[in-house]
Amino acid sequence: MGGCAGSRRRLLDSEGEETTPEPLLPLLDRRGALWRNMMGFWLLGLCNNFSYVVMLSAAHDILSHQRASGNQSHVDPDPPPTPHNSSSRFDCNSVSTAAVLLADILPTLVIKLLAPLGLHLLPYSPRVLVSGVCAAGSFILVAFSHSVGTSLCGVVLASISSGLGEVTFLALTAFYPRAVISWWSSGTGGAGLLGALSYLGLTQAGLSPQHTLLSMLGIPALLLASYFFLLTSPEPQDPGGEEEAETSARQPLIGSGAPESKPDSSSSLSLQERWTVFKGLLRYIVPLVLVYFAEYFINQGLFELLFFRNTSLSHAQQYRWYQMLYQAGVFVSRSSLHCCRIRFTWVLALLQCLNLAFLLVDVWLSFLPSIYLVFLIILYEGLLGGAAYVNTFHNIALKTSDEHREFAMAAACISDTLGISLSGLLALPLHDFLCHLS
């Protein structure tokens, strides 16, 4: 009884009023801030990659769309293909879907190449605003486009949005607990699944690609709201220990200090320091480049050619299903860091290259009897790609020092973009070669 009475007295203030123990409120604030930041980075990953994924899912429609005469434009949800060569055994568009891939990735590549040189000097908030505006512009421009060229300009806007956002948000993770990296990666995987699934589902339901794209304009608004109103103000910290939830409670970004004002930002690094850090990152960058080269060579070079005539699915529908299953695998593996961590990511690169070789042989020989076998392989492909991404950035966060982490995270994100760009450049001539075969 005496012990209970003592505990009770500790809950009373000087005037006898009951009050919450002082240590509990800061702890709750810190826990709340941690959850807000983790959810904020998940939403940022989701919104940042959404337009990029949707443009790849719509690639077949963008290149084969039919326009009605007159001022009103109409896009058939399942447009007939425009044959590249009527004698070819492949059902080809006149242009490979790799053209959409290049429009969706080359601007990102330029942004990521410039990022280590000077992009870090720009404040974070204006970068996020530009990213959101470009994402919205991409949906509008592609939706109302009357030509493939205009559509590709819209895809370029999606690429600028995604590339600028990835460089910005990955660098921003350096100012938050390390747990946000896993949540960011899971969000980007969720973007793949939700983007591909929503495009597939809405077009399967009979909505035209034009109206499907316009229905997605809420995503850029959600990105801006997540950054400005959900994230708390970042602070330099050591994201490595168990005490990451014990950092001081912070306020929303609106009206508070931005990360660019912090004294230990990577902007203080010399060029020699940056080059030294970058060389140390090559053991992480090279495997991720190979993983993304192989998987996007499959996605934009082979998906269109993996056409099965003995199914009820049209060619456009098969392409959308491939994209959706790939993104489902990516989402699962990018969300798996808490239960499965992989130190040697070069193993994933080897397995993905074997995946590419197997499907390339199938395109040439057509020995797989069922599209469902291809579905399983594509799901597995997505699992490998997502695992390589999240484990690469987690390993970098573990191995880099506090003062180098912001630069390292921004510099390493060149990996996936470089691999994707190389795959697109090689997929174009492969498409032309195979579509000329009789």
Mean pLDDT: 78
Q: Which percent range fits the helix content? A: 55-70%
Biggest sheet architecture: none
Overall radius of gyration: 24 Å
Structural class: mainly alpha
What does this structure look like?
The chain has 15 helices and no strands. It has helices spanning 2-10, 24-57, 59-64, 98-114, 124-143, 148-172, 179-204, 209-214, 218-230, 271-302, 315-334, 346-365, 371-399, 402-412, 414-435. α6 (148-172) packs antiparallel against α14 (402-412), α7 packs antiparallel against α11 and α10 (271-302) packs parallel to α14 (402-412). The protein is globular, with a radius of gyration of 24 Å. The model is unreliable at 1-15, 66-76, 80-87 and 237-264 (pLDDT under 50).
Short structural summary:
Helix content is 66%, strand content 0%. The protein contains 15 helices and no strands.
Which descriptors apply to this entry?
438 residues, mainly alpha, 15 helices
Explain the layout of strands and helices.
Elements: H1 2-10, H2 24-57, H3 59-64, H4 98-114, H5 124-143, H6 148-172, H7 179-204, H8 209-214, H9 218-230, H10 271-302, H11 315-334, H12 346-365, H13 371-399, H14 402-412, H15 414-435
Helix pairs in contact: 2-6, 2-7, 2-9, 4-6, 4-15, 5-6, 5-9, 6-14, 7-11, 7-13, 10-12, 10-13, 10-14, 10-15, 11-13, 12-13
